[in-house]
Amino acid sequence: MSKKVSILVGSLRKGSFARKVAQNVISMFPEGYEAQIVEIGHLPLYNFDYDDPAVTDFPTPSSYTEFRETIKASAGVLFVTSENNRTLPACLKNAIDIGSKPNADVAWKKTPAGIISHSVGKMGGYSAQKNLRLALSYFDMPLTGQPEVFLGNSPTLFDDNGQLIESARGFVQGYIDQLVALIEKNPK
């Protein structure tokens, strides 16, 4: 049975660089792994009334339940994100909040995770990644360490077919190998 890795893309734009990176990394996982992008753009904004047992007229959306179950069934998670206004994008923060409830059944708990951030500028999404690491630290998630992946000048990292150029591909492959090792060391 394949180990499932959920890839969450912190950009809703169909042609985003984050999505291009995510599409490239799917094939970098070894045999025995099944990596797939888990869409998060359709998830309603988080509201605790959905999970409050005292609130009976605000049922939990089925998209929340499906998302939470997908994350819980994942051997690992890879976040691929851009940076918006020096922090992580709202859609990704919303997904993190949805997976964090209910308190007694947090989807993220102890799930090994990696982060690839990018920006069109030179900083490579540094602030987004640091804010994301801070949010994830609350869930006791094993996170990859060094090297961290900050892909700067992201428009220059792809060829005409949307594939990562060789120098970027090799670096990202090394990171995916590191994430796989983390997943192997920390089974759920």
Helix count, DSSP H or I runs of 4 or more residues: 5
Give the spatial strand order of the biggest sheet: 2-1-3-4-5
Bin the strand percentage. Answer: 5-15%
DSSP helix fraction? 25-40%
State the end-to-end distance: 15 Å
Write up this protein.
The structure is a single chain. 33% of the residues lie in helices and 14% in strands. With 188 residues, the chain is of the alpha/beta class. A 5-stranded parallel beta sheet has the order 2-1-3-4-5, sandwiched between helices.
List the helices and strands and how they pair.
Elements: E1 3-9, H1 17-25, E2 33-37, H2 62-72, E3 76-81, H3 90-99, E4 113-118, H4 126-137, E5 149-151, H5 166-185
Parallel strand pairs: 1-2, 1-3, 3-4, 4-5
